């Protein structure tokens, strides 16, 4: 009798660790969307239009110009408009709010942590993202770690790409979101 119970417990542990028998892993997204966010960094002269600001910089640097050497050590916070197309002047459907940290000394790389707060007729709720952004790569993937509202408990991957940039003051990111867990 004891060996049957042990075998049953072992089977249940294997089922819990590897997924229940018959449960198939989601290989195609249950929901997809493409959004754009527009970042205008404060440079000391554009306070009326700026949507982000440097809040930390290497010793001796100022907070209105990104540091040299791949911007290593700069931290910026942002509250950027999100649009359905790549036009900065399109009606916003929400805000991208978070930060990026330039964290590599030998190439342009940052670490992103941000939330899309959407409030439109199509979508209401938040989507939270986190991950490394090797900026020099054309397309990069970051994790979608959760959400609220229409995106309650959603998880997946967002493929980001730099859609446009103007020097070190403006950039626009295309964000192709693929949810693999939808509740």
From TrEMBL:
Pfam families: Dirigent (PF03018). InterPro entries: Allene_oxi_cyc_Dirigent (IPR044859), Dirigent (IPR004265). It comes from the Eukaryota. It is found in: Secreted, Extracellular space, Apoplast. One of its GO terms (biological process) is phenylpropanoid biosynthetic process. GO terms for cellular component: apoplast. Residues 1-19 form the signal peptide. Dirigent proteins impart stereoselectivity on the phenoxy radical-coupling reaction, yielding optically active lignans from two molecules of coniferyl alcohol in the biosynthesis of lignans, flavonolignans, and alkaloids and thus plays a central role in plant secondary metabolism. Homodimer. Belongs to the plant dirigent protein family. This is Dirigent protein. It comes from Canavalia gladiata (Sword bean).
